[in-house]
């Protein structure tokens, strides 16, 4: 099995979108996916690029992704926000998640971030255990996520 972690290319966006949808199904919210391949092409490769992505290829097929962007904390400064990390169900347990996560950490350090942040659903025990086992993760309590949809 040959694994390669690399930055996204335009030709990858359709597959990346499929994995985003796969994550939404896993999280029991597929109806919430309103993003499109066209929007991802514009937002990831357009004039005002707003997200980055690494893909994990196994034998030439994308089996995992990590999507991130930068945010600014008035308390901490520049931070990298990991929006999604997804590994196909068939490839879980083969180390792709760790390789993708390590690559995002490397990106944060290379772009002079003071740290990185992400969210995990409180019922997603496999993900929580992954973060606890592999990284010195701090889990915040007392914060409520707020959203406005337009």
Automatic annotation (TrEMBL):
Taxonomy, superkingdom: Bacteria
CDD domains reported in the protein's UniProt record: NAT_SF
Organism, as annotated: Emticicia aquatilis
This protein's UniProt keywords: Acyltransferase, Transferase
Name assigned to this protein: N-acetyltransferase
Pfam families assigned to the protein according to its UniProt record, in alphabetical order: Acetyltransf_1
Statement: the UniProt record of this protein carries the keyword Acyltransferase: yes
SUPFAM superfamilies given in the database record: Acyl-CoA N-acyltransferases (Nat)
Tagged with keyword Mitochondrion: no
InterPro entries named among the record's database cross-references: Acyl_CoA_acyltransferase (IPR016181), Diverse_Substrate_AcTransf (IPR051016), GNAT_dom (IPR000182)
A molecular function (GO) term: N-acetyltransferase activity
Similarity remark: Belongs to the acetyltransferase family.
Domain N-acetyltransferase: 3-150
């Amino acid at each position: 099995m040959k694994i390669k972690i690399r930055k996204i290319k335009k030709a990858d966006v359709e597959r990346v979108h499929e994995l985003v949808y796969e994550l939404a199904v896993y999280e029991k919210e597929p109806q919430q996916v309103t993003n499109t391949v066209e929007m991802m092409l514009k937002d990831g490769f357009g004039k005002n690029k707003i997200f980055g992505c690494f893909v994990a290829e196994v034998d030439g097929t994308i089996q995992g992704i990590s999507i991130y962007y930068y945010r600014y904390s008035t308390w901490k400064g520049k931070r990298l926000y990991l929006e999604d990390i997804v590994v196909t169900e068939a490839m879980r347990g083969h180390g792709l998640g760790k390789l993708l996560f390590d690559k995002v950490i490397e990106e944060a350090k290379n772009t002079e971030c003071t740290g990185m942040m992400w969210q995990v659903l409180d019922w997603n025990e496999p993900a929580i255990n992954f973060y606890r086992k592999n990284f010195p993760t701090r889990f915040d309590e007392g914060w409520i996520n707020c959203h406005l949809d337009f």
